[in-house]
Amino acid sequence: MATGAGDQRVIAELWRSERSWRLTALLTVVNACAGREEATGPLAPIDETWSLLVEAFRAHPDVTEDVLSRPQVGIWAAHTLARLEESSPTGPEPLWADVGYLHSLVAAIAVRAGVPFELDVPVRGGTAVLPTVGAATFPPGTTRARVRAADGRATLMAGDVTVPVGARDGWHPSITVTVDRHDVPLRVELLDRDTYRALRGPSQPRTIDRAEVSHWRRLLGDAWDVLVREQPDRARSIAQSFRMLAPEPAEERFRQHSASGAEAFGGMLVSVPDDAVQLAATLVHETQHHKLHALTHLLTLTLDDPSVRYYAPWRDDPRPVAGLLQGAYAFAGIAGFWRIHRRHASPTDAPLAHVEFALWRRQTHLVLRTLAGCGRLTEHGERFVATLVSEVEGYLGESVPVAERAAADAIADDHWAMWRSHNLRLSEPVAAGLSAAWRRGREPVIPPAEGGSDPPRAIVEPGRIWFDGRAVLTRYRHGAAAEFAALRADPARVGRQVAGATGADLDLVGGDPEAAALGYLDELARDPTSVHGWVGLGLAHSDPGGPVARALLGRPELVLTVARREGAADPLALAAWIGRALTDDDVREAGPAGWSVT
Length: 598
What we know:
It is a single chain. By secondary structure, the chain is α+β, with helices and mostly antiparallel strands. Helix content is 54%, strand content 11%. The strands form five sheets. A five-stranded mixed β-sheet has the order 8-9-10-12-11. Strands 1-4-5-6 form a four-stranded antiparallel β-sheet. Strand 5 and strand 6 (161-164) form a beta hairpin. Helix 12 (350-373) packs across helix 14. The longest helix has 26 residues, at 8-33. The protein is elongated and about 90 Å long.
């Protein structure tokens, strides 16, 4: 598994362990509800619901296993247990509305198993859900509905509204997409109205119309064709683990959003992708998370210390060691995907595939080195990371075209400098010393990049900062050349099409660093503390190895510290002043020590 492959035998073992984990969580919920009337409120007591579950299991165990294995069941159990553990549960919904999802699960199992019953289920946001069966719509303000099943038919009723399961009006059947390429089938439920679809706790239902379902069916079919043709072993393991997709609206191009959860094995939340290749890469990415989440339910891999955070090249915020390992495993899979796909891509698509491969092998290798030396891995974790290191190091010697490799290196340098600028803060004595030296025309005393007696500390800045504007433009240039040319012809709209990007960024990515440098200097004249402007100036500087670029790309937090305190009447002079004092030891990418969080 540590090689990133995770064959079908491994996935089968993980499913068995996840079943045990899921049933343990379910039993814990049931036990926590015992003797608590507020846990079920107006719904049937928990022991009656459990008795119906046992009856349905005896009638049709396969149906019971299918429903309880759904990713949203794990999310529900984790969320509900957290509420049950509160001394006085609070939230926008009563406790019984969350506990009542168990009633919905049991009702769905009993309907599919053909067991006659009557049972009330919660209605949230006007929707009563029977997972894997469908959902019924009721008027606003409805809080519960009765499910009645007999003689092979089931009906939901609330007030004077009756919705038969399968009706044309008011009933919304479960959406399942099945695609098959080269005798490798994939079957996925598109989750829209389920309360726990978002993988982060309860959410409002979302309507998916026929056009969106058709679009997802086409995308999944085309993405599956890419994976089965190019990486059949990986495709088979994805097919065995991937069961649920919660669709989200499209984000900006090259900024697709996806997520998975530790308790939601086999499920993922995904925004509409740009194309099938992006979706194929996302399926690889999230399936890597599924496997590692499941492994960490069996083995302890990291020794977490929440006060210490690390640089993760795929995130804008400092990450704890467990999150760093999750990302490294996911992006090892991404690097492996692009490594193979670039050999199959068309001449038009190959440049971007080369960029992505070069970028993610570099970034993943960097983080794996950090993990290997951080001292916060267990013996299992050390073995796992050592195997991953060997796998990714095998990618480093593979050739990438010069232009695409340079583009990948620029993206990596940009993100590292943006991250340091936003997330690292010098101590007050060190900051004051730098400012005083600048004012008095003295040589700066450079603090260590990490560690030492008075190291920088990490903060987490709130909100979206858009570290990746120049990276997105680079993807346009290498993967959507016509659209990039249109932006170059009308630079005034770049910020509307790519949030956080500027005309200077267009000049830089378009191959005119002199014009870009002038643009960044104008930006700094307006705002001497603009991280975007400082880092852009470093990327655009005419001497890539000189003191200005060295300071702005290697230790930008030093320059920003002085600029925030003293202003920057001459940005180039300030950056050069810092850069001339930097040694090789003062400029590093990321190290194993991490940073304390303040």
